[in-house]
Amino acid sequence: MMQLINLDHSPYATRVRILIRKKQLPIDIVAPTLTLKTPEFLAAYPLGKIPLLTLDNGQYLPESIAIMEYLEDAFPAHPYRPSEPLAAGQSRVMASFTDTHLAPALLPYFKAMMLPEFTFDQQAQHDVVRTALEKFNQWLIANITLENHQVTLGDMVLAPTFWWVDVTLGLYSNHSITDGLDALNQWWDWVRSDADVQRGINEMASAFTAFQSQRS
């Protein structure tokens, strides 16, 4: 049986867990048996990242987007990659925005959580995140009508990373960075109404709470 090597707090692993559950796939979700970033882990998995999909033939796939695309192709029932070209393109825009705009903007906040000695210009980085979110809010207004929108791979990619926006920036600010971004906030309420998306978010929240307890 295939296995997803997973960490619950990872937004990259969470997006894959969401897809596995939505497609009801017979894939075991397991924790890594090797410690991350050790020579042993890198020898087994040279790209050094979680999640990893271990296949029945012993091969494995790294990189969450590659895993999700593989699962769509290998298990075409209940597709979440739209067949209509424009909708498929819009789904890819959401995934691309997540990994090339939003996640890099959040990276300093993650570094600060992991490395107490790491410092950065909080106001400048807040502005970087806000600008990225404003641009995406405008894109949503022009391209996505939630009444006709079905959950796609793009939604599954964006939702776990978007959850971390308030968590990370909330450590440095008393207000929500999405104030006034109505289309984005409406999308966020809409996507969390999906039970599998919300389950993935709940798992991240629990893992983050456990991480905070360990550090206190």
Give the helix/strand layout.
Blueprint: E1 3-5, H1 11-22, E2 28-30, H2 39-44, E3 52-54, E4 60-62, H3 64-74, H4 85-114, H5 122-143, H6 153-169, H7 182-191, H8 195-215
Parallel strand pairs: 1-2
Antiparallel strand pairs: 1-3, 3-4
How far apart the termini lie comes to 39 Å
**Spatial shape:** globular
Residue share in β-strands:
5-15%
Number of DSSP E strands: 4
Average pLDDT for all residues: 94
Number of helices: 8
Classify the helix fraction into a percent range.
Answer: 55-70%
Assembly level = single chain
The low-confidence parts are none
Structural class: mainly alpha
Major beta sheet, specifics?
4 strands, mixed
Structure notes:
It is a single chain. Helices cover 60% and strands 6% of the residues. The mean pLDDT is 94. A 4-stranded mixed beta sheet has the order 2-1-3-4, covered by helices on one side. Helix 1 (11-22) links the parallel strand 1 (3-5) and strand 2. The chain is mostly helical and 216 residues long.
